[in-house]
Structures are given as C-alpha cells and as structure tokens.
Specification:
By secondary structure, this protein is α+β, with helices and mostly antiparallel strands.
C-alpha cells in the first residue's frame, strides 16, 4: 500500500455494496477506457464488462475503501468464467481444479477519482493470496487495454490477445494474462 494513502481499507464486498459497485464500474468503463478505445469501443465494453454477483456470493470479491468512498473493487474466482458481468454471454460456473487450472482474477475496477493510489495492487495482492490459499499455483485474467499496464507491472505476462465480439459487431480487444503464484 502506498504510504501516502493510509486510509485504504480492504474488505470483502457485501450484497448491499452492489448498487455502488455497479455505478463505480460504469464510471470506470466510461471514463478510463476512452484513453485506449474509440467511443464505440467504450460503449461496446459495457456489454462484456460489469458486476458478477457470483463473485460476491462466493466471498471472493473485494472492495477498497478510501475513507468513506469505495475506491475500487476486484476479485478472484475458482470458476471457469474468465470475464464478464451477470449480463454477459458465455459464462461458465463450473469449478476449476487447482491442481491443473489457473484461478481467475476478475472484474477489477478503480473509480476514476482514485487511480494511481495503489488500489489495484492492493486488490491484486489479496486475490493472489486467496487463490494461493485455495491451492492454486497460477492465476489468469482477461485484461482490458487500460488494465494491462498495471498487470504487467505486477508480474503478469501476456498469454494471448483476443477480442470479445459484441452485439453491435464491435470487437473489444482484451489480453489473456497470467502469473505463477
């Protein structure tokens, strides 16, 4: 944690956090991806990104509070779904095998007013520790173009770039990234 930000507090997300988390995700997508995607790409990203309530139900989704505000959120999963919210196509709730599969880092968002404060690193550290404690030796994620620089700085390597096609035909660029724990 950045020592100049002593107010950062990590905790598990609760169901009552969901409205605030959804609003935070909408702001993060709408305001932070514009530096990496054209307007139609940002708009299309809402279709493939968002709140996955299964992560909260599984007790695997974290929030970081900065004082009274939720500054960011993110989680990990032992389920097969690599990315997407409740509304996204292609979800798979099957459990992964820690002996052969990589746990998933999922749904990482930082509120635009709280970027560059260590929020993402704090959440990543918690996700990695929880996945390691659950017996996983690797983690993988689908990184947005906006998130990839943070993940590279935290030791993640590129596995493969890919695109998620949306109903408008726009193909949102993503990068499958991974890390040994």
């Amino acid at each position: 944690m950045n020592s100049s930000q002593p107010n950062l507090l990590l905790r598990l997300a609760r169901p009552e956090d969901m409205p605030v988390l959804s609003a935070l995700m909408d702001r993060a997508i709408g305001e932070l991806l514009g530096a990496f995607l054209p307007p139609e790409g940002v708009k299309a990203s809402f279709e493939i990104m968002g709140l996955d309530t299964q992560l909260i139900a599984d007790g695997a989704y974290f929030v970081v509070e900065d004082g009274e505000a939720i500054a960011g959120c993110g989680g990990w999963s032992r389920r097969a779904t690599l990315f997407g919210g409740d509304h996204s196509a292609g979800r798979d709730a099957a459990f992964l095998d820690p002996k052969t599969d990589a746990a998933r880092v999922r749904a990482m968002y930082t509120h635009p007013d709280h970027t560059r404060k260590g929020v993402g690193r704090l959440i990543l550290d918690a996700c990695e520790a929880a996945a390691r404690a659950a017996g996983f030796s690797r983690v993988e994620m689908a990184a947005t173009m906006g998130g990839a620089p943070l993940y590279r700085a935290c030791g993640y390597h590129e596995i493969e770039p890919f695109e998620a096609e949306t109903s408008t035909g726009y193909r949102v660029p993503l990068i499958r990234m991974g890390k040994a724990l």
